[in-house]
Amino acid sequence: MRVIIVGAGGFGRAWVRAYRELGIGVVAAVDPSDEAREVAKQTFGLTDEYLFSDAKPAFLANIEADAVCICSPPPFHAEHVTLALNAGLHVLVVKPLAESLEAARDLVKFANTCGRKLVVAQQKRYLPAFLGLRDIIAAGDLGELGVVSVRLAVKGTAWPAGFGWRSKRHHPVLMGAGSHQVDLLRWVLGREIERVQATTWNVPWSPFEGQASAQVFYQMQGGLPVTYNVNWAPKEDDYVDFFSGWRVEGLHGVAIVDKAELTVNGKRAELKKIAQFSGESVDALNVEVMRRFIAYVRDDIDPGISGEDNLRTLAALYATISSANERVGYRIKGDDFSREEIP
User: Fold this and answer.
1) What is the 3-state secondary structure (H, E, C) of 58-101?
2) Which residue of 35, 104, 193, 309 could cross-link 316, Cys pair, CB 3.0 to 4.6 Å?
């Protein structure tokens, strides 16, 4: 597969391993940063004619490519996805797909019209601990579920790439970590989110201008309650990393995900290692995302993270943000949501 990369610096570098391990040819790179383009030039052996500071000329240059990997900041996703689809390319884009549910719906519809594949990189689905948890829940090993709690407390400054624009967003923690956790709830529990009530705030020592802390209550299908507590400005002694913080309680036991390990009733579960996976780093998970993207393009094998599926994740995410903004509850149904007074 031949790929154009949009967003060669920052988070875009977390995909280099996937390109190398899966034999993907990077044929052009787009980034406004001179430094990022130079790194891409050296990393992929590109000549200057295949390096662009803006996406539009890259897609008008008639470069022989099959797909694009879009790692630009979220405000540019709709534009870049549209340009790629117009150029006849399949699209892999980092989350979130778009800055609004309406824009995301338009992109999914346009991809279908163009006959192109659209995938959103929700890579946390493929952490072995979450795959294992999903399997035991689906098998009924925990019995009827009673409550799920998810807690995340990580330094929002730990990812310096793009911190400037992230720090100014009104809801950095929900748009960032929230899109992962909403997607994981759907994926791991095998249920859709039906209701949400959320509140957000910012602690005095936060480096963010927007709301970097949130407390969310979700109701899943079947009435299953989920609490989600997240803080991107925790005190030094209160870290809960991205691969931790899950507790699922059922009639027959308790499952916990902590530091990328899964324990069930106090015993560490043996986890199946996905192909080419070692450790829990994001670049390793990206290899699996890219593998599924390639299989979707070549063999039409549903990756589970298609643009169409992602609309349900975005409906729950934007319902959460609306609930936090208005301090009221929201009901989610399919790929839409509406305001609701929850008793």
Assistant:
1) HHCCCCCCCEEEECCCHHHHHHHHHHHHHCCCEEEEECCCCCCH
2) 193
